[in-house]
């Protein structure tokens, strides 16, 4: 028989143990080992199996709870832990100690997925784990943030393998009551948010709250009886369904998410956010709801509200290719917005303009995100350059470098990912590792020998080997093997063999099977008698990605070979729990995407924090962080247009590095068995990469270059009855009329012709300009000087202001900045105090 419905009953704690409830439901325990130790002491074997304090309380027999309620030592430790959590939640931290004027009282952070812990399976991969690390670091720093997303009743999916190695998806049924979540209620009833659907229907969602340290994370759930049957399934699974299903999810995440934040803050007294950060474009519709709020509360028109919306929005894109952007058919967007119920007083034509792209039949979520945000960024320096080039058509007339998209390189949350054994060895408190930006430096080596570090690295590798054997055995059992034929799994992997890790999502560009380009060379590396290597692989392909599933099957068929299966494994169901073993136990972290297609790739950061050395294509974060001594860069076959030829060349380079540089260095040990050359690179990695890859560094950058200036701009736009926003709207209207008629005449270079032109020669650039009724104070007129090539394109240009020099005349005097072939031009740009960038309005007049 099957149950018609399931529900979870939580444990009833004896009064002396009441403090355990707060400790179990605040996800700070995921990065606070003392809290985990407290729960482990209740039943070590059970905790090692469950790894979830809340489930632990449910699973413990009532008599054990009664016994602990009389254990004075345990009660004392419980009180101490509860007091420590309270201090963490209330004490002033980095953010509270800052004295900057205009710091926002709250920031709302929207993401389609949050990977905080495997105990809350609400993520698919890197994007979600990044969002989880962002919240954790914000909590540690005291940044007053509210996270917003959806609660997926089936999560992403659980991965298995068929007998022939094909990925098999399984969707477990999730009961939110079984997770560290609290239903947000008012007067004993769930608080609901509503968004209008076509046909006069409404989609309703209840709110669940997860406590991520100091940060409330709000997750919307549509599986409630108040919804029609088809609407109940809107939050059924992450990244599932057709376009209609996805647009419903994104409408709920953006518009419903904004309404949820407003209600939550009203109920709890949490400060209302004025700065909104969208992690990718999925929740971009929230900007329309913010405009609707301003229009209805302050009586502004849409164009007048838009500057205030843009001022308070930060948009982060993780997508390095146009194909990765969410697009919807225009007629589908019209269906949801045309009746005016979803966002009243916002004309559907304006909505469509925000998402317009080259294909008139498609609505582009990234374009809308950029048009509704005054500040946008990519997630590594290289990705920033790629993104500026990818979206440059939105800013015609500007060089790629001037496109107003910055870069903030991702980071990872040290306390979550660093092995506590490593923190202890290096003399630091694991709780403090990365906390408020405190990171390793050259002093971490004090008092720690190479021998000690090498022994610890072997200990972590040995734990990985044990986990690999357990998971390999389980995977074969799930594929139908008998326990009697799996004795060989006890000999899989060796704690004294060089261990390489490769684990990530499996789209084709990440090239899971690059290592298989020459199977014989790979086999020779694995089975080398003197210097063998072993490779552990994990990763999931999207259920609809047949090509990705084929790559997994190719790997599985190779690793199933009895000749090599003790040296290379594929572990199904890659998640955060598996990842920790891999990051901590692997000596080398492999990443070989097609260059410029990896936006950041944070898994290698987590390995580096544990003393792993990266072996990677120079893409994402590795492009800016590789220094020649902290790992290896796989050479790229730049200029080779045949993808198969490119893969052959880069695979050959990978084999050469593994066999000729990496393995020899690893096995080059002294009489004490310690590879000093290898450990020199490990020490260098810990000392130099430690500070750079921390999420605390990332969040501080978002505060300084995103949240703080956005908050100040919101104040300028909305103060005195939205005077700033009205001023900018009037200015844009004036530009619409005047800009097509602005003309530059007679741009000329003047200098003393009796002198030779050399670096430092003083020259004057003059131009006559018709501003078509605009005042000189309303524009920025520049002389642009730089080197020129055969196509007369300026490079390494400098901009010099050209103040008025008579009626309709403007001039700039400068000294020539460089030798060689030099050119110049003159341009006119908009100028207004509420513009964050001269390129913001995508307007420029060139000579």
Automatic annotation (TrEMBL):
UniProt keywords, alphabetically: Allosteric enzyme, Carbohydrate metabolism, Glycosyltransferase, Pyridoxal phosphate, Transferase
Cofactor: pyridoxal 5'-phosphate
Superkingdom to which the source organism belongs: Bacteria
Top enzyme category: transferase
EC number in record: 2.4.1.1
SUPFAM superfamilies for this protein: UDP-Glycosyltransferase/glycogen phosphorylase
InterPro entries named among the record's database cross-references: Agluc_phsphrylas, Glyco_trans_35, Glycogen/Maltodextrin_Phosph, Glycogen_phosphorylase_DUF3417, Pyridoxal_P_attach_site
Catalytic activity: [(1->4)-alpha-D-glucosyl](n) + phosphate = [(1->4)-alpha-D-glucosyl](n-1) + alpha-D-glucose 1-phosphate
Record domain DUF3417: where: 13-120
Pfam family, one: Phosphorylase
Gene3D superfamilies: Glycogen Phosphorylase B
Family of this protein: Belongs to the glycogen phosphorylase family.
Job description of the protein: Phosphorylase is an important allosteric enzyme in carbohydrate metabolism. Enzymes from different sources differ in their regulatory mechanisms and in their natural substrates. However, all known phosphorylases share catalytic and structural properties.
Descriptive protein name: glycogen phosphorylase
């Amino acid at each position: 028989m099957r149950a018609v419905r399931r529900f979870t009953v939580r444990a009833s704690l004896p009064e002396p143990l009441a403090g355990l409830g707060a400790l179990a439901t605040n996800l700070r325990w995921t990065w606070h080992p003392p809290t985990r130790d407290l729960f482990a002491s209740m039943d070590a074997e059970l905790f090692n199996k469950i790894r979830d304090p809340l489930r632990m309380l449910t699973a413990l027999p009532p008599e054990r709870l009664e016994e602990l309620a009389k254990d004075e030592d345990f009660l004392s430790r419980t009180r101490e832990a509860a007091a420590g959590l309270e201090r963490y939640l209330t004490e002033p931290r980095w953010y509270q100690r800052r004295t900057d004027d205009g710091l926002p009282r709250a920031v709302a952070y929207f993401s389609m997925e949050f990977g905080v812990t495997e105990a809350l399976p609400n993520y698919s991969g890197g994007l979600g784990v990044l969002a989880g690390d962002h919240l954790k670091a914000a909590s540690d720093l005291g940044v007053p943030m509210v996270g917003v997303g959806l609660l997926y009743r089936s999560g992403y999916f659980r991965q298995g393998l068929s007998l022939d190695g094909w990925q098999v998806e399984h969707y477990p049924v999730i009961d939110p009551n079984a997770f560290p979540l609290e239903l947000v209620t008012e007067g004993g009833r769930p608080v609901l948010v509503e968004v209008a659907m076509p046909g006069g229907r409404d989609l309703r969602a209840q709110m669940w709250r997860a406590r991520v340290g100091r940060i409330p994370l709000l997750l919307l759930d549509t599986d409630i009886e108040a919804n029609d049957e088809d609407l109940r399934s809107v939050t059924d699974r992450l990244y599932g369904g057709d376009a209609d299903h996805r647009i419903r999810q994104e409408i709920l995440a953006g518009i419903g998410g904004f309404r949820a934040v407003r209600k939550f803050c009203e109920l709890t007294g949490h400060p209302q956010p004025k700065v909104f950060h969208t992690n990718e474009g999925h929740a971009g519709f929230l900007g329309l709801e913010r405009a609707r709020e301003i229009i209805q509360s302050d009586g502004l028109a849409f164009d007048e509200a838009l500057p205030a919306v843009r001022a308070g929005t930060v948009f982060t894109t993780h997508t390095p290719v146009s194909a990765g952007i969410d697009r919807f058919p225009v007629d589908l967007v019209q269906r949801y917005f045309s009746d005016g119920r979803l966002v009243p007083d916002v004309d559907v034509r304006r909505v469509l303009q925000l998402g317009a792209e080259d294909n008139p039949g498609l609505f582009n979520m990234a374009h809308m995100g950029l048009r509704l945000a005054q500040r946008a960024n990519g997630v590594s320096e290289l990705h920033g350059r790629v993104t500026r080039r990818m979206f440059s058509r939105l800013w015609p007339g500007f060089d790629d470098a001037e496109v107003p998209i910055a870069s903030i390189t991702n980071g990872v949350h040290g306390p979550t990912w660093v092995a506590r054994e490593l923190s202890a060895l290096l003399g630091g408190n694991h709780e403090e590792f990365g906390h408020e930006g405190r990171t390793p430096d050259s002093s971490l080596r004090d008092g720690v020998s190479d021998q000690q570090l090498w022994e610890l690295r072997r200990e972590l590798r040995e734990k990985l080997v044990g986990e690999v054997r357990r998971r390999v055995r389980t995977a074969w059992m799930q594929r139908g093997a008998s326990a009697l034929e799996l004795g060989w799994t006890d000999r899989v992997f060796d704690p004294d063999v060089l261990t390489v890790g490769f684990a990530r999502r499996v789209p084709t560009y990440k090239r899971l099977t690059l290592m298989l380009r020459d199977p014989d060379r790979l086999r020779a590396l694995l089975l080398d008698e003197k210097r063998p290597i072993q490779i552990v692989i994990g990763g999931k392909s999207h259920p609809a990605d047949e090509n990705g599933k084929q790559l997994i099957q190719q790997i599985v068929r190779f690793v199933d070979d009895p000749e090599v299966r003790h040296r290379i494994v594929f572990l199904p169901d890659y998640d955060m729990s598996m990842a920790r073993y891999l990051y901590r136990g692997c000596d080398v972290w492999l990443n070989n995407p097609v260059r410029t297609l990896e936006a950041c790739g944070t898994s290698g950061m987590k390995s580096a924090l544990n003393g792993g050395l990266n072996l990677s294509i120079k893409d994402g974060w590795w492009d800016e962080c590789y220094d020649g001594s902290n790992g290896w860069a796989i050479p790229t076959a730049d200029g080779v247009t045949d993808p198969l030829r490119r893969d052959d060349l880069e695979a050959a380079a990978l084999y050469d590095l593994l066999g000729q540089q990496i393995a020899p260095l690893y096995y080059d040990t002294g009489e004490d068995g310690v590879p000093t050359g290898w450990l020199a690179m490990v020490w260098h990695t810990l000392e130099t990469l430690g500070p750079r890859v921390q999420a605390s560094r990332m969040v501080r950058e978002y505060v300084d270059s995103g949240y703080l200036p956005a908050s100040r701009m919101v104040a300028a736009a909305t103060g005195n009855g939205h005077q700033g926003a009205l001023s900018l709207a009037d200015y844009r209207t004036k530009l619409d009329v005047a800009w097509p008629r602005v003309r530059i005449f007679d741009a000329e270079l003047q200098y003393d012709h009796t002198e030779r032109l050399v670096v430092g020669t003083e020259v004057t650039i003059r131009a006559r300009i018709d501003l078509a009724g605009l005042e000189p104070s309303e524009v920025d007129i520049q002389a642009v000087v730089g080197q020129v090539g055969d196509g007369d394109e300026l490079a390494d240009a400098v901009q010099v202001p050209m103040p008025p020099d008579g009626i309709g005349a403007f001039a700039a005097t400068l000294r020539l900045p460089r030798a060689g072939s030099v050119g110049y031009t003159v341009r006119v740009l908009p100028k207004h105090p509420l513009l964050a960038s001269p390129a913001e309005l995508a307007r420029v007049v060139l000579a």
